[in-house]
């Protein structure tokens, strides 16, 4: 039985691949973060979903360089390297599969020092800071978007597409005409939620709204009683159904949601996180130019949100023909490199 360590910042894609490998009797050990935010005691969506799938989860206390000024967080950088080294010595995997993010850096480099081979997968349109760094230490780099190839060594890089949930691939193109789905990611976005709460009196006159808030604002959302308003913290099945049925999706512009919206040719209003590395969310949003209204966070308000939805409904999406077999392609690459 082959044993692999999975790690990285985009666990939704990684989980699709890990589950497929598990069915073929590969052993997967997950290096991740149990808590999403500094000082937060709540279990992250990553921890909940990975452990629910039956994988061993190792909580990695790693720090990151990018825009980190807290000395306590900076101390976690060497801690993460030491912990990764010890965990890899303990488990002795045959290989490491990275999905980018700051947790991948100590894991991949520690693996390289121990002679454990790695591959990494890039989800975003541009090169993430972590993936750019570990590209020197991995055997292969898989990318989701064809335009991402230029950021990495050509002899190492292959376009696989993004592993996405099968329910998205088989989704019907039908939608509910006046349904708006609002999401801020699995943990929600307080900035988006605040604008939505203020805009609801206008929105609910014209639209049916499904609002995924994350855990921080769910109490406020549940206090709103209206026939056209439905809310939930986070639920993968509800999220998928809402994305499929919505006429317009309001979201951040993370790698996974952007790719899924592109596959579905779904009209959307995208509010990129402005402080992410290399402005990658803005670049993700720009890849959906025919189907997305980009609303910068500094211009977000109840009125701009309402007007952006109206503008999005008038768009005519052009299909992007993105690869739909990302999981299959990445599985093939893993087997080629680790068997």
Give a written overview of the molecule.
- With about 350 residues, the protein is an alpha/beta fold.
- The chain has 2 domains: about 5-165 and about 325-339, Glycogen Phosphorylase B (Rossmann fold), CATH 3.40.50.2000; about 165-315, Rossmann fold.
- Helices cover about 40% and strands about 15% of the residues.
- It is built from 13 helices and 13 strands.
- A 7-stranded parallel beta sheet has the order 3-2-1-4-5-6-7, with helices on both faces. Strands 10-9-8-11-12-13 form a 6-stranded parallel beta sheet, sandwiched between helices.
- Helix 2 (about 45-50) links the parallel strand 2 (about 25-30) and strand 3.
- Helix 7 (about 190-205) crosses helix 12.
- The protein starts with a strand and ends with a helix.
- The mean pLDDT is about 90.
Shape: globular
Which sequence of strands runs across the widest sheet? 3-2-1-4-5-6-7
Question: What count of domains describes the coordinates?
Answer: 2
CATH architecture of the largest domain: 3-Layer(aba) Sandwich
Question: Could you say what the CATH topology of the largest domain is called?
Answer: Rossmann fold
pLDDT < 50 runs, ≥5 residues: none
Biggest β-sheet description: 7 strands, parallel
- Approximate strand percentage: 15-25%
N-to-C span:
10 Å
Walk me through the topology.
Layout: E1 3-8, H1 11-23, E2 27-32, H2 45-52, E3 56-59, H3 71-91, E4 95-99, H4 104-113, E5 118-122, H5 129-134, E6 140-143, E7 157-159, H6 166-169, E8 179-183, H7 190-206, E9 208-212, H8 218-222, E10 229-232, H9 236-245, E11 248-251, H10 255-264, E12 268-270, H11 280-286, E13 292-294, H12 302-313, H13 326-338
Parallel strand pairs: 1-2, 1-4, 2-3, 4-5, 5-6, 6-7, 8-9, 8-11, 9-10, 11-12, 12-13
Helix pairs in contact: 1-13, 3-4, 7-12
């Amino acid at each position: 039985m082959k044993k692999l360590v999975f790690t990285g910042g985009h666990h939704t894609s990684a989980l699709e691949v890990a589950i497929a490998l598990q069915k073929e009797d590969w052993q997967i050990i997950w290096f991740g973060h149990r808590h999403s935010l500094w000082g937060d005691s709540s279990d992250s969506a990553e921890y909940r979903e990975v452990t629910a799938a039956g994988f061993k989860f190792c909580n990695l206390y790693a720090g990151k360089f990018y825009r980190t000024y807290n000395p306590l967080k900076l101390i976690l950088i060497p801690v993460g390297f030491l912990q990764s080294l010890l965990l890899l010595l303990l488990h002795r995997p045959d290989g490491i599969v990275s999905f980018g993010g700051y947790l991948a850096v100590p894991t991949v480099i520690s693996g390289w020092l121990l002679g454990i081979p790695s591959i990494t997968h890039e989800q975003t349109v541009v090169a993430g800071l972590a993936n750019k760094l570990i590209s020197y230490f991995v055997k292969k780099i898989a990318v989701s978007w064809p335009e991402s190839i230029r950021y990495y060594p050509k002899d190492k890089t292959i376009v696989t597409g993004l592993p996405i949930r099968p329910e998205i691939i088989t989704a019907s193109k039908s939608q509910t005409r006046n349904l708006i789905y609002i999401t801020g990611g699995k943990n929600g976005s307080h900035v988006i939620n605040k604008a939505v709460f203020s805009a609801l009196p206008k929105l609910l006159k014209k639209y049916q709204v499904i609002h995924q808030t994350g855990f921080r604002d769910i109490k406020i959302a549940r206090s709103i009683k209206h026939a056209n308003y439905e809310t939930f913290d986070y639920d993968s099945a509800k999220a998928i159904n809402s994305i499929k049925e919505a006429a317009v999706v309001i979201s951040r512009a993370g790698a996974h949601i952007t790719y899924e919206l592109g596959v579905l040719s779904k009209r959307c209003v995208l509010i990129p996180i402005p402080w992410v590395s290399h402005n990658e969310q803005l670049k993700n949003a720009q890849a959906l130019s025919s189907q997305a209204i980009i609303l910068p966070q500094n211009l977000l308000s109840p009125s701009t949100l309402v007007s952006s939805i109206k503008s999005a409904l008038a768009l005519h999406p052009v299909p992007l023909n993105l690869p739909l077999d990302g999981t299959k392609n990445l599985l093939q690459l893993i087997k080629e490199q680790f068997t």
